[in-house]
Each structure stands twice: as C-alpha cells, then as structure tokens.
Amino acid sequence: MRITLLLCALALLGLFVTSAIAQSPVDGKWIAQVPGRDGQTRETTFTFKADGAKLTGTVSGRQADRPISDGKIEGNNLSFNLVYSGGGGEMKFTYTGVLSGNEIKFKRTREGSDTAQEFTAKKQ
User: I want to staple 24 with a disulfide (CB 3.0 to 4.6 A). Which of 50, 81, 85, 114 is the partner?
Assistant: First the structure.
C-alpha cells in the first residue's frame, strides 16, 4: 500500500514538474501603460502564448481584443505586429521587446513613421 502511494505521489510530482518546464516565461498576461496619440497613457493588456519560436496572443485596450500576427521569439527578444482597421484605413504597428524577469521593455513603431514609442509591460 505504501509503495503504491509513493508511486502515485512521484507520478503527480512528475506531472507538475513537466508542466512547469513546458511553460515559457512569456506566457500569460502583461500590463503596460502605453503612450497614446494625445500624450496620455492607456492601460493595455498583452496576453501571450509561446510555442517554440512562435508567439501568439492578443492585445486588449479601450477598444476590442486584437490578435497579434507574425509573432516571434528569439532568446529574450520577441516581436509581433498589430493591425488596426478603421474609417481611415489600416494602421500596422510593429512591437519589439526584450524580456527580463517579470518585465518586457517594448518599442512600438507605426508603419510609415520614424517615431518610436517605448514602454514597459509587467507580468501579472
């Protein structure tokens, strides 16, 4: 009986360890105060899921959740695009970031613009 309990406990421990190892440090929700057009910041939630070198997820702000595209992870560096569609056409933003612990330092550029905005997201 004790051997059976010990084997079951070891099997459960193995499942927990495997699950913890499989999760990427970028997975989960990240919150940032992102600079807006009017100079004010807006709270934005980034939800990421890594699958090897591929990054998927959404960006949530005052409007709807928007899916990211072309997401990549290379070491501690990540990048993705976000496309906004509206009455004025389409705007594409490119995000690049560096993961360090529970922070990602981002740089965001808009297609057709030389201006970059920097901000930091923190893991929740």
Answer: 50
